[in-house]
TrEMBL record:
Entry superkingdom: Eukaryota
Pfam families the UniProt entry points to: F-box, FTH
UniProt protein name: F-box domain-containing protein
Protein's GO biological process: innate immune response
Organism lineage string: Eukaryota, Metazoa, Ecdysozoa, Nematoda, Chromadorea
Length: 300
């Protein structure tokens, strides 16, 4: 009977693709020949979600598979960069649902290692959602597949400091990954200094913009009422007053939750744009026309 090593590449790859990722890692330890074949082969895994925590002593990795979505199927602690390199090389042939990277204040060296691993992959890592804890977004995001990525979430590494800055915001806004994504959530701890119009291509946005002009606010409203894709825009902004908002949006409808404005959306009679001004800023969202308060005026 032929052994596993006597098989040709096609049946070997078929076997590997039937294995969960932990079994593949176990097979890799059997002998040098299997290790070399697995390292060089191009096959898909069952990985769906990867969480990488970068600490001062190494990497911790938590995984989920499609078959066991609700449960963690693998936890590795204190991995070296070589361990992570092997793992991510195996993952690059799969399409992930979520990649989550968490940083530590003393993990700058590990972050550089992760960036180098991703940079040297033969193919960009495919994930539909990317979540980052930390400001160094440019160390990871440019190395993800821009055609697959749909959602970007950026959180602070800690919440001790308000108004943190994102590293390299200008480069971030020009990345194809940023331009192709449909949803962007940047935690309010980050103060983004950028033109509001850079964000109009998203379906949903939550961001704190530094001092947007009244012209930019008017442009956001016009973009929303003429858009076929915009659904939600949470704009955390301070310093606006009633006169400025009336100048841009007209006379408001007064509601216990705050001021509101309603506008028709072109070619969408069933929906309207609702703008709400609260203590946290302005919220733009598409709502069903039948939910507009009876006394409110829907502007053209």
């Amino acid at each position: 009977m032929p052994s596993l090593l006597d098989m040709t590449d096609v049946p070997m790859i078929n076997i590997l693709e039937k294995c969960d990722y932990k079994s593949v890692l176990t097979l890799r330890k059997v002998c040098h020949s299997l290790r070399n074949f697995i390292d060089d082969a191009c096959f898909k895994t069952d990985l769906a979600k990867i969480r990488i925590a970068i600490g001062p002593t190494g990497f911790s990795v938590t995984c989920h598979s499609n078959a066991y979505w609700t449960n963690e199927i693998g936890i590795a602690r204190n991995w070296t960069s070589d361990d992570l390199k092997i793992f991510l090389k195996m993952a690059q042939n799969s399409k992930l649902f979520d990649l989550y990277v968490k940083t530590h204040p003393d993990s700058s060296g590990g972050f550089d290692d992760l960036e180098e691993i991703l940079k040297n992959q033969t193919r960009p890592l495919k994930t539909e959602r990317f979540t980052m804890e930390g400001a160094e977004i440019l160390k990871v995001l440019p190395h993800l597949d821009s055609e697959t990525l749909k959602e970007i979430i950026i959180k602070p590494a800690n919440y001790k400091f308000d108004y943190q800055n994102l590293d390299g915001i200008e480069q971030f806004l020009e990345l194809q990954q940023f331009k192709n994504a449909v949803s962007l959530i940047i935690d309010n701890c980050f103060l983004v200094r950028a033109d509001l119009r850079k964000f109009f291509h998203f379906q949903g946005v939550s961001v704190k913009i530094h001092e947007p002009s009244l012209e930019e606010l008017a442009a956001l409203k016009e973009a929303f009422v003429s858009s076929t894709h915009m659904e939600f825009f949470n704009l955390n902004v301070r310093g606006l007053d009633e006169n400025q908002l009336e100048q841009v949006f007209g006379t408001p409808f007064h509601d216990p939750r705050g001021w509101q404005w309603f506008f028709e959306i072109q070619n969408y009679k069933e929906h309207v744009l609702r703008i709400e001004w609260t203590l946290r800023g302005l919220i733009f969202w598409k709502m069903e026309a039948k939910e507009v308060p009876q006394d409110a005026v829907v502007q053209h």
